[in-house]
Specification:
Structural class: alpha+beta
Number of helices: 16
Number of strands: 18
Distance between the termini: 112 Å
Shape: elongated
Radius of gyration: 33 Å
Number of domains: 2
């Protein structure tokens, strides 16, 4: 048995690494919605209960001030990743790519043998063959089942899985959820089976955004034209092929190493020739790098296509600058956003309180005492039951109702009608009612140190005119 060439002895194909990444991402996506700590999820944007769960901490609607930081983290993180590693997200983590590999390389090629080899993605099967049509129908049916599972998994980040399965038992009363589930699944079927890589090339906006984020140090799959020889000439879309075979290339450039085998072209899922230079269609899957590594490795030479930068491989202008000012700037901004996110998240309150006034402005008693009515909405955001009460910062205002503390179970709300009474005159306006600012201090009587919040509202005190009129009656 012939031994491996020196260049291939310790080589691990990028394809194998990508498959391992796909498996890890799939397991994570399927398992993490089921994992809870104290009933809180890793990530859940629950529109039903108007809650956000992030890193197993629950935030209610009033606490969604962390959402802008999450969005900034997402978009700035994508920009930073693209500037550093090109469309590495597309090739290594995007669901579109994972699903296409699953459908094309596993179902169509490995399982049903419709396609001859994963190394040739350019040659379409013979669809005039009835056997291939039957096999393709089987592949579509299998993928349809997987598409519904993938669609459900996506929805589990918005509807907890345990709630999801309860709702689908009663589809008539949960038509919106069912519509989203079926709609997402049908889109996945159409996308993966019929649209294919055209989604990456023509539909996905990310391919257009990336062009303004790249620079000559961005890590991409890049062909070395100095070692391999110039296959194309021109700039941008005007580039055209100048040689057709190895003989023409060697005649033009005697020291060129490219064998013109076009293995890198056949294996490309987006149907490009990497030797043409940087192209928006490239998703950094590095299949071309693997293909060239095998061919050149058997010749005892390093690959002509590598995951590197234009500066290093195409222009031979020096080593790739990984930590250049742009990347350092992204890291700095991400660090600030991350710090702000955790600072804001750490300010999560153990209770929430909304205060609304009732439609009645005030009530005047014959003895001259004045009452104001409010609706207090308490919410226990802690993980255990607490007893709550509150106080008012004005010593001349007393709490008439409720007269004693009350309990609220964890993550439950309780609405209370609150009546505050002025024990003594608070203002002396002749004809105008007076709004007196007050501060309500709500707290848990069993943990006042940690669960203690303040809310501002007003106490309306009547004018002397209204006060006298009511007292006369």
């Amino acid at each position: 048995m012939a031994s491996k060439p020196e260049y291939l002895k310790n080589w691990i194909p990028y394809r194998n690494k990508r498959i391992m990444m796909y498996i890890a991402i799939t397991i994570f996506a399927l398992v993490i919605p089921w994992v809870t700590i104290h009933g809180n999820h890793f990530f859940l944007l629950n529109f039903d209960k108007k809650q956000l769960h992030f890193l197993f901490v629950r935030f209610d609607m009033q606490e969604l001030y962390i959402m802008p930081f999450l969005l900034m983290l997402l978009f700035i993180g994508i920009f930073a990743l693209t500037a550093f590693g090109g469309r590495v997200w597309c090739g290594w983590a995007c669901p579109q790519t994972i699903f296409r590999v699953l459908y094309r390389d596993f179902l169509e090629t490995k399982l049903l043998k419709i396609r001859k080899s994963v190394k040739n993605k350019q040659k379409e099967p013979d669809w005039s063959d009835p056997k291939n049509k039957v096999k393709e129908a089987i592949a579509i049916l299998i993928w349809a089942v997987l598409a519904f599972i993938a669609a459900a998994d996506f929805l589990w980040f918005f509807v907890p899985p345990e709630t999801f399965f309860e709702y689908i038992k009663d589809p008539a009363n949960h038509t919106i959820l069912m519509g989203f589930w079926i709609g997402i699944a049908l889109f996945l079927i159409a996308d993966i089976v019929f649209i294919k890589e055209n989604f990456c090339i023509y539909i996905c906006p990310y391919s257009r955004v990336q062009s303004v984020l790249f620079d000559e140090d961005t890590l991409i799959a890049v062909y070395d034209p100095i070692r391999g020889g110039k296959i194309y000439e021109g700039e941008g879309n005007e580039r055209h092929k100048v040689v057709k075979n190895q003989k023409e290339l060697r005649t033009k450039e005697p020291d060129s190493e490219c064998t013109m085998c076009e293995s890198c072209v056949r294996v490309c899922p987006t149907h490009i020739d990497i030797r043409k230079g940087l192209q928006l269609e490239c998703i950094n899957c590095l299949e071309c790098v693997d293909a060239c590594t095998v061919v050149m490795g058997n010749l005892g030479k390093p690959s002509l296509v590598q995951w590197s930068s234009e500066r290093e491989k195409e222009k031979h202008a020096g080593k790739t600058r990984y930590f250049r000012p742009k990347i350092i700037g992204y890291i700095g901004v991400l660090s600030i956003v991350m710090a702000m996110l955790f600072i804001m998240g750490s300010k999560k309150e153990g209770m929430l309180l909304n205060i609304d006034r009732t439609t009645r402005l005030y009530k005047i008693y014959p003895d001259g005492k004045v009452e104001n009515d409010y609706i207090f909405l308490f919410e226990n955001t802690d993980e255990k039951k607490h007893t709550y009460y509150f106080s008012v910062n004005n010593k001349n205002i007393e709490i008439v109702r409720p007269s004693k503390p009350f309990e609220i179970a964890p993550h439950y709300k309780k609405k209370k009608v609150v009546v505050l009474r002025a024990k003594t005159p608070l203002a002396n306006s002749a004809n105008k009612d007076v709004s007196i600012p007050i501060i309500v201090n709500a707290y848990a009587t069993d943990n006042k140190k940690d669960i203690n919040i303040f809310r501002k509202t007003v106490f309306i005190y009547p004018s002397q005119k209204h006060l006298k009129e009511k007292m006369k009656k």
